[in-house]
Amino acid sequence: MNKNRTKKIVFSALMAALTAAATMVIHIPSAFSGYIHLGDGMVLLSGMLLGPVAGAAAGGIGSMMADLLSGYVFYAPATLIIKALAAFAGGYLYLHLPFKGHGGSFRPLPFLAAGIGSSIAVTGGYFLFELAVYDWPAAVSNVPFNLVQNLFSLIAAGVLLPVLLRVRELRELNRNSAS
């Protein structure tokens, strides 16, 4: 196994753990069996730092682990899929949208596009899941909570990403993910 692949696996495991921790630390229950947390910021960061595929694995697994450890076992399978899609969308948009700058530097417009894409995946994914499991009023009632959660997560990711991209290993990993 080459050195870069080992680093990517290690950082993916670290991001999964940070995603689970960020999801569990600030934990505000919402209307229907869900909760507001900052873990989506880590999901978005996972996609942007690690690339769409490794980021999807880290974000999905970390979020699912938080559900399992917090007693939201029913949501865990949906969370794995939804958060993996959110990290994939965010990572893909951030790394592939053309904008001034180069891989390894903070790029504001691709960041906002990534945040919006990730938010659409989370809000839409949970809406569809809750629509299938509960009913229309229950699914609609959680949309505002998901939007608030996405806003705070976008702010957290926006504060952390420029700082994290100053770390040489993460900057190089980000550059390699873009290619």
Automatic annotation (TrEMBL):
Keywords from the UniProt entry: Membrane, Signal, Transmembrane, Transmembrane helix
Residues that span the membrane, as ranges: 72-97, 109-129, 149-167
A GO cellular-component term linked to this record: membrane
InterPro entries: ECF_substrate-spec-like
First and last residue of the signal peptide: 1-22
Protein name as it appears in the record: ECF transporter S component
Species: Lacrimispora saccharolytica (strain ATCC 35040 / DSM 2544 / NRCC 2533 / WM1) (Clostridium saccharolyticum)
